[in-house]
């Protein structure tokens, strides 16, 4: 976000771990994420919209505490401005997989992305996992460049997209 010359800089939203009471706001953000970037989040908007609220509530409650999986949101009050999650890697105990990273269009370029990734990184370190990894669809250059600016490095590893067979994802890593 930018301000007019001479005006104070707007404050960034609070970035925090989700809380059980965030379920409805998180559902609204999830639907926005899927509408904006349908290939990035491993489910269709129709499937997400059909999921009962109780499922969202259970998922948010499960990710609001613990060391195996966490979700973080950028909360300016009202609608969430962004999201990033982290989960353990079953094959690498020192690694957190970053997933479902999203910043709403109005907040892109404001620093919210860095704050969300930093929150996942701090959680990862606190859980004893010193490295982060994420996968980005090959050709999503905007996301690729944004993650490079945050210190992620392309490892050269390419994997098939989990739901769209014609797409490939690249793996990026950085210290937590």
TrEMBL record:
It holds the Pfam family Acetyltransf_1. SUPFAM superfamilies: Acyl-CoA N-acyltransferases (Nat). It comes from the Bacteria. Residues 13-176 form the N-acetyltransferase domain. Keywords: Acyltransferase, Transferase. The keyword Transferase applies. The keyword Acyltransferase applies. This is GNAT family N-acetyltransferase. It comes from Micromonospora globbae.
